Amino acid sequence: MPAAPTRVMPAASVRLRGPPCGQPAHLSPATWQHGCVTAATHSTLFPQVPDSADAVLDGLDPEQRAVATALQGPVCVLAGAGTGKTRAITHRIAYGVRAGILQPSSVLAVTFTNRAAGEMRGRLRQLGAVGVQARTFHSAALRQLQYFWPKAIGGSLPRLVDRKIQLVADAAAACHIRLDRGELRDVTAEIEWSKVTQTVPGDYAAAAAKAGRDVPRDPAEIAQLYSAYEELKRERVVIDFEDVLLLTVAVLQDRRDIAEQVRAQYQHFVVDEYQDVSPLQQRLLELWLGERENLCVVGDASQTIYSFTGATPDHLLDFRMRHPGATVVKLVRDYRSTPQVVHLANGLLAQARGRAADHRLELVSQRAAGTEPVFTEYTDEPAEAEGAARRIRELIDAGVPASEIAVLFRTNAQSETYEQALADAGVPYQLRGAERFFDRPEVRKAGIALRGAARFGGNDALLDDAPDLPSQVRAVLSGEGWTPQPPAGSGAVRERWESLAALVHLAQDFAAARPGVTLADLVAELDERAGAQHAPTVQGVTLASLHSAKGLEWDVVFLVGVAEGMMPITYAKTDEQIEEERRLLYVGVTRARERLHLSWALSRSPGSRPNRRPSRFLDGLRPGSSGAAGRGGTAGAGGVERGSAATASAPVAPGPRRRQRSPARCRVCGRTLTDAGEMKLMRCEDCPSDMDEGLYERLRDWRAGQAQRSGQPAFCVFTDKTLMAIAETVPDEEHALARIPGVGMRKLGRYGADVLAICAGRDLDEDRGLN
């Protein structure tokens, strides 16, 4: 049903109650510069729901706040790794809902994985934004298709097949074409690519050649298999995953009445990971939107790693061309990783080529300095796995939780060696990509047992000696296989124990956060978490491919197999494929919060010829290596760009090459500065200030007038730290003002004359001839 009319407020007219954003009286920059803005995994497990709309904005940095308060028209958020993009867009939705600007039922937030959608729903629930739809593209389309199919087509929707590979095998048999297991998987992938790029069987050969795809069979054979596969589906009256999107697009295109009904329901759209949108998903999004522009997209072209599935960053990079009035916000403050990890990540992209590299974002770490990345060379792959397992064992013995360590590799085939090495070292582990937590049989059985105990526990002697929630959960789950000590070894028994242990830990955290809760309260919490796919942490080192690690993070990351032939992978031949491999390594590096280990082996097995070399991507970055120092490109600084018809007729142009800067040092004590706020002041926070208080107040009054005239927050003119730095240095000419961090050439040209006049003690009105 259509939603109630939405009250829309222009982004520039959104006014926050209380002091302006960036003022210390309302929100100290230290609040968001020193860890308040963190990943979900480091947030409070059971946070209190904010008590007001304004409270939703607490803790956001200036750029995130700009995202959260830009609630009308097209908005494009270019968000680097670890910059809090999910936080920004969920707070945006929650702020709009809590302020009464957005109706919850009129908002549709879409992303690409069930895990990401579940995380988004969980965060929205914690922010008090109940009723917002957060789904994957496929799940949103399937829901609409199921509802409208009887009206549009008649009858019931055909059955959705879970795995298409058997259908492809049957199609191959019908065509008398023999496919081994690998070819079967590869042909299935080609069919999927064809469908998401809206390529019909007759056009497959030409489309694959144009896209430069490395096809597994003769293109004519694949086209024949594709055609037979589609015919087989029609005969069996089934549809596949890609058909869900294709059929939804067809219904919305052919039935204007249905399209209008959907548009009346959903009036505001948010798309996460927009760099991964396929042409088919983009077409569906356009049909959902119609002629409207209430769309917010967020993405990072430097994290485009799924082009083999049809994903393309072009929709993200061309957003300003399609939406001339768009507001563009760049998030570059990295709250996840230490400066050392961020430096390596920036170095990787500095050597990149291609369109995505031209729009890369240069991250600025907001964390304290940490340890340098460790680069290790091994004689062979088993030695590399044993070395990683040995270091992991040492970290765990030193107090690092196993769940905060990950081993990431290029292909799933590398997993077995590391599973064995970790098992031999007595290290618990879990494989990423296994079934979802709440779908595991042991978790479902545990849920039934906990529900029964909550209902009839008063008559259960098992709970007689369990006075609080954690002890009650331990008592119930002991009957399902949980024990105080983990079982020896690895395998299925250990994995089941880890699942039950995660529920025990969740109960302990739940009771600590909310004293007096009951078993029934925990069951209700588990039900909500299952609906949102908000799983508790499983204690064990994560083993994952680089592709499946996207969107995740750990304190310690081991990137293994970083050698030529594996990174980049052997079959990456074209420049575009090589650059995607570089971006894949970049994604891996940016998963690490505190410590990063990179390793490679000179040979595959003991005694083999050592004919391998470290990845070319590490040239010039690892100690003792030489290589290209990189290039300028448009390493984007953070900030907000307001769209206008005059500026948006073309994509954002590359900026000038940024010069390498020497380390910033305190002008009082000489210490190297790493904190962004201290770098703006050009001194340590606790070093004595010689600020001219009167000048500072005059600058603040002037800034307030500028902000009011331009209709933007005060911090967008100059931040408090920049004004303080000006009031301390009192520049008397342009080049002295330009040296102050936070000024820059653009603001110097716009505001420089005014600021220098104020510093000189002149009256601006008199200078302008006003009475």
Automatic annotation (TrEMBL):
Q: Which SMART domains match?
A: HRDC
Residue ranges of the UvrD-like helicase C-terminal domain?
A: 339-594
Residue ranges, compositional bias (Gly residues):
627-641
The record's annotation in Gene3D superfamilies points to:
1.10.10.160, HRDC domain (1.10.150.80), P-loop containing nucleotide triphosphate hydrolases (3.40.50.300), PCRA, domain 4 (1.10.486.10)
Domain spans labelled HRDC: 689-769
Cite the GO molecular-function annotations of the record. Answer: helicase activity
Q: Name one Pfam family in it.
A: HRDC
Q: What SUPFAM superfamilies would the database entry show?
A: HRDC-like, P-loop containing nucleoside triphosphate hydrolases
Q: What is this protein called?
A: DNA 3'-5' helicase
